[in-house]
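Onboarding guide, step 5: your first structure request.
Type a short instruction followed by the sequence, for example:

Predict the 3D structure of this protein.
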Amino acid sequence: MRTPGAAVSPLKKGDRHPHLREFRGVFGIRREPVPFFQHAAMVLTLAVAWASLLSAGELVAAADAGDEQRTSTTCGSPAIDAGSARAVQAILEAGFSGPSVDPAAIERLAAAAGKTGERDSRVEYARGLVLLKHLKHREAVAAFDSATRAGPPCLPAWQALVRSRLTLKEGDAALALAEQLAAQLTDANAAWPNACRSEAATWLGRLAGYLALDGVELVQPPAVLTAHEVRMRLSLGEGLAEAYAAGRANVHREHQGLLKQRALARTEIAADQQKQSQDRTAAVAEERAE
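The system replies with structure tokens like these:
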């Protein structure tokens, strides 16, 4: 499974957009309508990304030992408590060890970490990943939404929720979520670590950059996206707007690079086909000469 930024094969049947393949991994989006999160490989990648923060067993051990540095997960977020760490471990093990899952059973595992309104966001995010893996579409969306409302701030949960809306072709809802996230990033009273604010703003810029690519029609009409970007820059302020602009510009630059790769590959294929044709013509001529 490729990570964002890794080399991309420039040619794939059915792709009008070279950059689309990267965003299938980042946002889980296809050009054509597909069932919600149909790609099992992408779902497994999400789960591995979460589990790789620390293995579930190590997370529990670190929480039991009170090792705050090792239990701090994404974006410099606060340490996870022992009960929540155990819930994450149990949810992932239950969800990824068999061919099916009972949402009620996953809910009970999450409940063991605390009441719904008091759950750690990372527990809800893990619950969403498991539901997503088993194509429990609406339940997964609800879990990701719950994670964005819980604490501490969890950027992967926001990303998963926005991705869900885009996959459902709910572009307006995705933009509204992006604007909600931007508002949180500039709220001095919000618990977002500074490093995570910048990372989230960059990701929001990449999202806008992708949606603005020619042929990507997840947000219509185009004026809606233009107005959204104006509001985002005003909301983020000077500091985070710079990170937003950098993320957006990176998408454009990478897209242009991928276009060049595709054009080069096509040129090489055409040259190879021409050489093969010439070789066949020469071989036929030799046979006739004999």
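Each response can be followed by summary notes, for example: The chain is about 70% helix and 0% strand.
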